[in-house]
Amino acid sequence: ESDTASEISFQFNKHKKTPSIGSHSSDMASVSSVSGSVLSVYSGDFGSVDAQGTVEFALDYDEKNREFQVHVSQCRDLAVVDEKKGRSDPYVKTYLLPDKARMGKRKTSVKKRTVNPIYNEVLRYKIEKMVLLIQKLNLSVWHNDPLGRNSFLGEIEIDLASWDWSNRKLNWYPLKPRSLSAVNGVDHRGVMNLSIKYVPPGSLGPKNPPSGEVHIWVKDVKDLLQLRPSGVDSFVKCYVLPDTSKKSYQKTRVIKRDTNPVFNHTIVYDGFHTEDLKDACVELTVWDHEKLTNHFLGGIRLGLGTGLSYGISVDWMDSTQEEVAFWQEMMSAANEWIEGLLPLRSL
């Protein structure tokens, strides 16, 4: 792949609000179901129950299968959610932080009508040991509500870098109120240095360019998470949402063994109308390249952050204040490169 320039045509007309063709409904469905963001660790928490009780579990790492195992045994003296009926329907949920987006959640079965549930279940993560050691385990207990109004019952957070891996025994731990690190997801993932500009149609001469263009110049990234002693083998992916097709997808080359990679890669998307800029979102994500799977390191989303795209509510229109200001400056300064340093974040 060229490291100097990529060019791709991007057509927005199929996302207009007013239906005009028979295939429109399927197009709109694909827009509204675009993936790319992860719900909060505490999504669906409507409860106001004080955390109490204890949870018994054990941790182990299976070197042969390269698998992290959380053996959830049982809980005792959990808070009662439904006081009228004197019941709770608890289950246990785990995340690996800060990278809950990549590793996802694991959860046990639900035990009904008990504040002393017994699970004896193993929650498993396929993950390299050196990657695991820069994570934290967030284990939380929840009351399951049929309507999705789940209530938080308590949690414990463990720094796996300092965990005693010779300890494979079941132990009891007190459940605590929510921790700020898990609620806010505050973590340092590095900083991306980039420039962008918008070239309106016909701004360089008659019919030049024939359609609007967004130019994205990915210069370098600093202070990436170091996943292995040799550094990290990173590359950058780019999409212009709501399009997640192969036409929209671009990526840089892989820079090996460097936590401060220099990409110097330019991408050009044409097919823009000026009014599309308020509904589109440029998503740039940084990944660690491995043979079997790529690991998400962090990303940015450049847009207006309105939560809407072509009149549809979408979770990826979630740009931070810095990202919104960067995009707005580009919109107001046609044909000018806008430079910026933006922090990478979880998406």
UniProtKB/TrEMBL annotation:
It is found in: Cell membrane. Residues 51-173, 188-317 form the C2 domain. Its main location: membrane. Pfam families: C2. Signal peptide: none annotated. GO terms for biological process: exocytosis. GO terms for molecular function: neurexin family protein binding. One of its GO terms (cellular component) is exocytic vesicle. Keywords: Cell membrane, Exocytosis, Membrane, Repeat. PANTHER family: BITESIZE, ISOFORM I, SYNAPTOTAGMIN LIKE 2. This is Synaptotagmin-like protein 2. It comes from Jacana jacana. The lineage of its organism: Eukaryota, Metazoa, Chordata, Craniata, Vertebrata.
